[in-house]
């Protein structure tokens, strides 16, 4: 966009500001403290970020000495550094830390808010800046990726991730569609559109010839998307193509990708590389888009009743063909069974909740199906991290959540004032209607932490209440903003419709039935919010035509260190963690110990359950776990995978409280039938969803690591071999003949002895021998036997931390004073021995979690309030160089390390993501593509895929 156009847009917004009725917003401090900048209240550290392609071993990125808070995980800092830092690597212009990134964005927002009259005083602008900075710094929320890419740079200030285009029945419009879509793909975003205005292949042109039909034009758009992707875009081009169910070419549209899947199978069986990203996959068509059929209530009732349905000409709307509705619906389900396309969008439901019907109907969505609004429009997104609002007493801080929503919605609306757009028509519509998309992530983790099953009445009630509070608070702030800077430009002509939709949201909130005190508290606050929405809207109108969606939150979910994305349940109970020094480990989810405490399990029982999960990857037959609690730990995949309708019911619980829709795919097992998919589509309509997509495991050939290769060659079900179940056992790692060791003499309560500890050449502890009492005595024999048991445990991979946790604080005689300056008092010999081993072999951060410090560290804490020395970065760096007894780098990032009760073990060397880790544990494959950037296995995120290695997504986030 030219500078002249940008200035004109600014003048237009300033005129809107002049129509405001009040002096501006007063921003109160909620998260920050007067006189203290948020940056000064956290501890910062320097890290080296190196990213490697796991397939080729090639280093794809390296930036050293970047600055992040010490509580940010390695994964979060890696993804932010590689994806969001601006400036050429190796130059002074390159951003070197999180402070620069947050300042670049937040200061731009604060200045724009002040310039466009959002704040009452300069002081309010400063408080707004500090509050926004604090929440981003502490991972309470994140803007969508384009904000981090573009805001505050010399690039166009594009803030939107979601776009909807339009195309008419003319060659000029079709060619313009190719052009506009290409520019959006070039910027790394995605777009969707409805092709139903294009006349069908069963209609005539004005010249008398037969029209090509929309499906033929999809080929050109698909080739364009594939070319731009392969030309160096940051991720695959994401696009959505929609066709109305009454279009005469609907059957061809439905079967398009299924026929291509047959072609892929035939080529694969002939020896061609047809995996997603394979060199031969480009020979097939329509692989760069998600397809969806837009169905009406009339059609769905015809399906229920088994009656006929008319397909209508695009030129005069006359019925040119009649089909059996149920048969057409079955063809949709069969195609989805074969290749996961098409999805379904429920047209009448979508437009019944439309706030701007006088301007035009909603005909399409963005590629991930959460943004549904006017043609030629865009939406900027932001998502909150729900787990951050869970208090220590396991109650949800609804008041704090609402305050955060108010601030974020304000920032999102401000961004439209200075934003640039890929086309003038998109820019004009967005400025006139100011569509926003606030949402959340970590719902699955929140439900587990509070003891709720994902597919349970309590889980759905809590999700619904939180969603209602989020959208109600957003529209309340939107009405308050309208009083300050005026309602959106298109509000006047749509006022009655907008207020009607607000009343529909309020009525849905009133009909919500709470299950427990947790969701009841949230619902009460949501009810107050919706009351104010309706009252303020009558007086002020609204600043935004749309407020909320539930997006996939792929990359930004990693930025916030979320365990789960969007509205999704937990992917698995065991997670893959990358370590500071470049190694990795597998760890039982941090949420599980908290959930077990919430459910009332004793520490000993909880530890046994966690150890079982670490080994098996599921909770079935876990020792001490009650069967009625299994549902709390149900996940997206694995032995206790959530049933398909469980996903649908959760979507239905949240949908009435969203302006837009939900990005989510309903996963079905490979054994699912066509009839089951048809039922999911039917139930989605009955439950009031706006859109729905399904995926049956192994239905697509273009997914690596599927075991079966044989098909029937006729488009039917591919016959897959049953994956081999692999049993994993620990392997003893013996010490070499010559190894380093140290001998320590000690005295505990007057009893003297010696300890000899031997280690592997890479410094991992491998054996311990204790000498206590006279040779041949019972005490000496017991100590010898104990030493052998501990040594064998270490050599089989039991972490030293586990021994330290179990044997410190044991109390028996002899006990008392010791001759060790670092351990002045010991409750027993065992207590002393394992404290000494911790001091000798564990890193500072690991000892800190166990409360074990040297005399020097304790003295420093008394003097400075911190156990760390001034040159703590160097000390942490040295600690990172240590090797664990299993040979992997020890993680010194306190956020990465699990709680004391969480099981940690070395990750299999073949695993580079949680998806691959689950494959190694369960022996079954995860049906997902490999990342184009780093080569690791991706995992589902909404209706897209996300890479845990580098944060790349297959959609628009």
From TrEMBL:
It is an enzyme of class 1 (oxidoreductase). Keywords: Cobalamin, Cobalt, Disulfide bond, DNA synthesis, Nucleotide-binding, Oxidoreductase. Gene3D superfamilies: 3.20.70.20. The keyword Transferase does not apply. Residues 48-139 form the Ribonucleotide reductase class II vitamin B12-dependent N-terminal domain. Its EC number is 1.17.4.1. Its cofactor is adenosylcob(III)alamin. The keyword Secreted does not apply. Residues 160-695 form the Ribonucleotide reductase large subunit C-terminal domain. Residues 1-22, 881-901 are annotated as: Disordered. One of its GO terms (molecular function) is ribonucleoside-diphosphate reductase activity, thioredoxin disulfide as acceptor. It catalyses: a 2'-deoxyribonucleoside 5'-diphosphate + [thioredoxin]-disulfide + H2O = a ribonucleoside 5'-diphosphate + [thioredoxin]-dithiol. Residues 736-840 form the TSCPD domain. Residues 1-11 have a biased composition (Polar residues). Coiled coil: none annotated. Belongs to the ribonucleoside diphosphate reductase class-2 family. Catalyzes the reduction of ribonucleotides to deoxyribonucleotides. May function to provide a pool of deoxyribonucleotide precursors for DNA repair during oxygen limitation and/or for immediate growth after restoration of oxygen. This is Vitamin B12-dependent ribonucleotide reductase. It comes from Microlunatus panaciterrae.
């Amino acid at each position: 966009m030219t500078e002249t156009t940008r200035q004109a847009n600014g003048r237009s917004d300033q005129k809107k500001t002049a129509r405001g009725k009040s002096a501006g917003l007063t921003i109160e401090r909620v998260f920050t403290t007067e006189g203290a900048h948020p940056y000064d209240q956290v501890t910062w550290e320097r890290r080296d970020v190196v990213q490697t392609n796991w397939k080729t071993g090639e280093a794809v990125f390296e930036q050293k000495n970047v600055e992040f808070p010490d509580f940010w995980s390695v994964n979060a800092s890696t993804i932010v550094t590689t994806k969001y830092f601006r400036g050429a690597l190796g130059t002074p212009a390159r951003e070197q830390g999180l402070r620069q990134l947050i300042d670049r964005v937040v200061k731009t927002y604060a200045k724009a808010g002040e310039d466009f009259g959002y704040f009452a005083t300069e002081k309010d602008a400063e408080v707004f800046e500090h509050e926004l900075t604090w929440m981003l710094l502490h991972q309470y929320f994140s803007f969508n990726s384009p904000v981090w890419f573009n805001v505050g740079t010399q690039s166009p200030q594009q803030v939107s991730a979601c776009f909807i285009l339009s195309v008419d029945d003319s060659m000029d419009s079709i060619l313009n569609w190719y052009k506009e879509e290409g520019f959006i793909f070039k910027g790394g975003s995605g777009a969707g559109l409805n092709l139903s205005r294009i006349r069908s292949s069963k209609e005539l042109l004005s010249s008398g010839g037969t029209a090509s039909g929309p499906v033929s034009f999809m080929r050109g758009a698909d080739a364009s998307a594939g070319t731009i992707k392969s030309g160096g875009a940051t991720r695959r081009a994401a696009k959505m193509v929609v066709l109305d169910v009454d279009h005469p070419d609907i059957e061809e549209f439905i079967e398009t990708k299924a026929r291509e899947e047959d072609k892929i199978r035939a080529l694969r069986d002939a020896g061609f590389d047809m995996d997603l990203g394979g060199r031969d996959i480009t020979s097939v068509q329509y692989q760069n888009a998600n397809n969806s059929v837009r169905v009406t209530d009339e059609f769905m009732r015809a399906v229920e009743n088994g009656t006929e349905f008319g397909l209508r000409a695009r030129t005069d709307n006359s019925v040119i063909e009649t089909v059996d509705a149920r048969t057409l619906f079955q063809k949709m389900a069969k195609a989805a069974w074969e290749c996961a396309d098409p999805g379904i969008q429920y047209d009448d439901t979508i437009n019944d909740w439309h706030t701007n019907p006088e301007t035009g109907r909603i005909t399409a969505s963005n590629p991930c199906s959460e943004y549904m609004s006017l043609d030629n429009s865009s939406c900027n997104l932001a998502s909150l991290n729900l787990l951050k609002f869970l208090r220590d007493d396991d109650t949800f801080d609804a008041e704090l959540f609402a305050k955060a929503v108010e601030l974020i919605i304000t920032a999102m609306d401000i961004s439209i004032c200075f934003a640039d757009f890929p086309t003038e028509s998109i820019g004009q519509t967005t400025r006139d209607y100011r569509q926003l998309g606030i949402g959340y992530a970590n719902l699955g983790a929140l439900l587990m932490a509070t003891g709720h099953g994902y597919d349970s009445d309590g889980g759905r009630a809590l999700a619904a209440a939180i969603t209602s509070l989020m959208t109600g608070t957003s529209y309340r702030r939107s009405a308050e903003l309208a009083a300050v800077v005026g309602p959106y430009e298109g509000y006047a002509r749509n006022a009655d419709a907008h207020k009607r939709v607000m009343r529909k949201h309020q009525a849905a909130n009133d009909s919500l039935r709470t299950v427990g005190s947790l969701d009841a508290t949230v619902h009460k606050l949501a009810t107050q919010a919706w009351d104010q929405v309706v009252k303020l809207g009558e007086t002020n109108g609204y600043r935004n035509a749309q407020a909320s969606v539930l997006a996939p939150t792929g990359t930004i979910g990693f930025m916030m260190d979320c365990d789960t994305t969007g509205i999704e349940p937990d992917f698995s109970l065991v997670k893959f963690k990358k370590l500071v020094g470049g190694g990795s480990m597998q760890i039982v989810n941090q949420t599980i110990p908290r959930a077990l405490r919430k459910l009332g399990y004793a520490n000993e029982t909880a530890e046994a359950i966690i150890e079982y999960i670490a080994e098996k990857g599921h909770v079935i037959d876990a020792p001490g776990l009650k069967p009625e609690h299994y549902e709390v730990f149900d996940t997206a995949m694995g032995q206790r995978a959530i049933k398909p309708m469980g996903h649908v019911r959760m979507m239905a619980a949240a949908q009435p409280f969203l302006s837009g829709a939900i990005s989510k795919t309903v996963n079905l097992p490979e054994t699912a039938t066509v009839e089951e998919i048809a039922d999911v589509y039917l139930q989605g309509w009955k439950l009031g969803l706006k859109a729905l997509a399904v995926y049956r495991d192994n239905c697509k050939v273009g997914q690596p690591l599927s075991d079966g290769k044989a098909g029937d060659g006729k488009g039917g079900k591919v016959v897959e071999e049953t994956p081999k179940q692999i049993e994993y056992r620990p392997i003893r790692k013996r010490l070499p003949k010559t190894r380093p060791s140290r001998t320590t003499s000690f005295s505990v309560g007057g009893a003297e002895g010696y300890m000899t500890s031997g280690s592997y050449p890479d410094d991992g502890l491998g054996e311990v021998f204790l000498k206590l009492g006279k040779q041949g005595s019972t005490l000496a024999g017991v100590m010898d036997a104990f030493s052998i048991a501990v040594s064998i445990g270490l050599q089989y991979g039991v972490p030293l931390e586990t021994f330290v946790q179990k044997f410190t604080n044991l109390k028996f005689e002899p006990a008392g004073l010791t001759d060790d300056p670092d351990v002045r008092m010991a409750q027993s010999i065992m207590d002393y021995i394992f404290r000494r081993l911790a001091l000798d072999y564990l890193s500072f951060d690991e000892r800190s979690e166990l409360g074990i410090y040297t005399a020097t560290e304790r003295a420093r804490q008394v003097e400075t309030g911190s156990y760390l020395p001034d040159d703590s970065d160097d000390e942490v760096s040295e600690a990172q160089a240590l090797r664990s007894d299993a040979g992997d780098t020890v993680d010194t990032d306190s956020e990465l390390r699990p709680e004391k009760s969480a099981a940690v073990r070395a990750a299999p060397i073949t695993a580079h993501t949680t998806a691959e880790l689950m494959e190694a544990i369960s022996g079954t494959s995860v049906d997902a593509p490999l990342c184009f950037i780093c080569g690791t296995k991706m995992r589902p995120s909404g209706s897209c895929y996300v890479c845990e290695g580098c944060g790349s997504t297959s959609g628009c986030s």
